[in-house]
Design brief:
- This protein is of the alpha+beta class and about 350 residues long.
- It has 4 domains: about 130 residues, Immunoglobulins (Immunoglobulin-like), CATH 2.60.40.10; about 120 residues, Immunoglobulin-like (Sandwich); about 30 residues; about 45 residues, no CATH class.
- Helices cover about 25% and strands about 35% of the residues.
- It is built from 5 helices and 17 strands.
- Strands 1-9-8-3-4-5 form a 6-stranded mixed beta sheet, covered by helices on one side. It has a 5-stranded mixed beta sheet with strand order 10-17-16-12-13.
- A hairpin with a 7-residue loop joins β8 and β9.
- The longest helix is centred in the last third of the chain and has 34 residues.
């Protein structure tokens, strides 16, 4: 599906360069886009204005009579569409906020011009628009009931100005709700603003130096299952008006809170202890096997004594003993083979 969509995008972009009257607009989910519509001023008055789609979902988006409010065709788009200006001035601007992937399409403006002599004319605007809305991968944090979650806070539009406050927004249904709005200008050195005084102990903003400057993280503590939802944290900067900000899906994170308390914080320690024990047992087993193998090798390297040599040694010893006994207790004339005793008395020797 994504490959087909990319092919269509290339085809439409190609038509932009061919025709030269289409403006290419690329946005992320949650962003807003402005579509300026205008026609060349004419002597005839302009009665109304249309905004239409002509590619993926052909049809009319809204219609506005001169001097009246705009009528939006889809009820779900009423809060997202706003028209600035009036068709009588031959120019106006349509703002589409909280963009989704389904808003990707080719848009064009059409003005209704009065014609006294015949039917009213419909004159297209000077420019058409191709809007491409890219999907955003939203991060996910899973915690247990009573646990904490850390959300990164970024300044709006990436500006680098002194920080004076923080805003936290959550969306569970269609409309986002503001949970925290804390500024120094409203509070001085106070702990929290009036909108968050009842839950100020649950939020804690910390800053730490990083490679790209200071980073700000907002900690959500003592979470409950009903606290789950899509969160967005933004910093309030000095010199900017204290206006509430909507949910920024480009920087949003989904927090899921499991029901019931559990020892989530003990799981890493337990896993580390079990892994260490298994590793020690494996090392001991390897050392034992190596020791037994070396012992067997040493025992096998000693060759056994030959049986013939053992028997020969026993026979020689027995022969010597027999010769000694015969010479000592019998009157034999042959020379004694046993060694003489040089410690005998001289009398016995002479005899």
């Amino acid at each position: 599906m994504s490959a087909i969509r990319n092919l269509w995008t290339l085809l439409v972009i190609h038509s932009v360069f061919v025709c030269g009257d289409i403006q290419f607009l690329e946005r992320q989910e949650g962003d807003s886009v402005e579509l300026p519509c205008a026609i060349e001023p004419r002597s005839r008055s302009t009665l109304g204005f249309y905004l239409k789609r002509t590619w993926l979902h052909p049809g009319s988006v809204l219609f506005k009579y001169t001097g009246s409010d705009a009528r939006v065709n889809a009820a779900a788009d009423e809060r997202r569409l706003a028209v600035g200006g009036d068709p009588s001035s031959h120019s106006l601007t349509v703002t589409l906020s909280e963009l989704t992937v389904n808003d990707t399409d080719r848009y064009y403006c059409e003005f209704v011009v009065a014609n006294p002599s015949s039917e009213d004319e419909r004159v297209p605007g000077d420019t058409e628009f191709f809007l491409l809305v890219n999907a955003v991968e939203i991060g996910r944090i899973e915690v247990c009931a009573g646990g904490s979650a850390v959300i990164s806070c970024l300044p709006p539009r990436g500006e680098d100005l002194p920080v004076e406050g923080v805003s936290l927004t959550r969306r569970r249904g269609r409309a986002p709700a503001e949970l925290l709005y804390h500024t120094k200008r409203h509070l001085g050195d106070g702990p929290a603003s009036a909108s968050a005084s009842s839950s100020s102990s649950r939020f804690q903003l910390r800053s730490a130096p990083g490679p790209g400057g200071f980073t700000y993280n907002l900690t959500l503590r003592h979470l409950r299952p009903e606290d789950g939802g899509l969160y967005s944290c933004q910093l309030l900067l000095r010199g900017r008006p204290d206006t509430r900000v909507s949910l920024d899906t480009r920087r949003a994170v989904f927090v899921s809170v499991e029901g019931g308390p559990c020892g989530c914080s003990n799981y890493p320690t337990l896993l580390y202890a079990l892994s260490s024990a298994v590793l020690v047992l494996i090392v001991l087993l390897i050392l034992t096997l190596i020791y037994h193998k070396r012992a067997r090798t040493r025992a096998a390297s000693r060759p056994p004594a030959p049986i013939y040599e053992e028997m020969a040694g026993v026979k020689t010893l027995s022969t010597k003993l027999d010769d000694c006994e015969v010479s000592e207790y019998r009157n034999c004339k042959r020379k004694k083979t046993c060694p003489e005793n040089h410690y005998e008395t001289p009398i016995r020797s002479a005899f």
